[in-house]
Amino acid sequence: MSDQVSSSQAERASALAAEIRAISGKFKRKLREQGGQNDLRPSQVSVLLRLERDGPSAVSSLARAEGMRPQSMSAIITSLLEAGLVSGFPDPDDGRQTLMSLSRKCQKLLKDGRAARQDWLTATIQKKLSSQEQEKLAAAVNLLARLIED
After folding, report:
1. What is the pLDDT of residue 7?
2. Under 8 Å CB-to-CB from 46, ≥6 apart: which residues?
3. Percent of the chain clearing pLDDT 90 (strictly above)
4. Contacts within 8 Å (CB) and 24+ apart, 106-109
5. What is the average pLDDT across 33-42?
6. Chain segment 6-28, per-residue pLDDT in tens
7. Terminal CA-to-CA distance of the chain, rounded, Å?
8. Which domains does the chain have, with CATH numbers?
9. Are 11 and 19 in contact (CB under 8 A)?
């Protein structure tokens, strides 16, 4: 009996894992749509978020952090410079290097995108879920947070 229980628990956990992965992918795409940054490639978004999180950085450091060749990172940075999303300034410690940072335009885009996603999600929760369902969602969010804790 114990083997049957553990087998059915394993099957249930596997089914839940598949459902969570599928829903989280759709959820992420929906949030991305609401943020209005659909014209940026994932590699560009990753670099922008790294600059936001870690602060100004040289192209070579960004390449190492993102696990890519400096030439590939240079191409990404060039496209972000052309879009006005990053700017460069001389490294005060090594004038031969240029540090890249987020432009004011990019900072505003990130802030506005987050606000748009927050507003959409808040309105959608209020519109589609009853108070009881919102309580269940809060409990589910707590469980999901436990799954990713270290």
Report:
1. 86
2. 66
3. 79
4. 106/48, 106/80, 107/52, 109/36, 109/37, 109/85
5. 78
6. 888 999 999 999 999 999 999 98
7. 33
8. 36-148 (1.10.10.10)
9. no
The β-bridge partners of 100 are: 57, 88
What's the pTM?
Answer: 0.77
Question: What is Dmax (Cα atoms) for the chain?
Answer: 71
DSSP state of 71: H
Residue bearing tokens 């659909």: 38
Q: Is the pLDDT of residue 2 over 70?
A: no
How far apart, in whole angstroms, are the C-alpha atoms of residue 48 and residue 102? Answer: 7
Predicted confidence (pLDDT) at residue 97 exceeds the cutoff of 70: yes
Give the strand order in the sheet containing 57-58.
57-58, 98-102, 86-90
Residue 58 near residue 74, CB atoms below 8 Å:
no
Tokens, residue 82: 């052309």
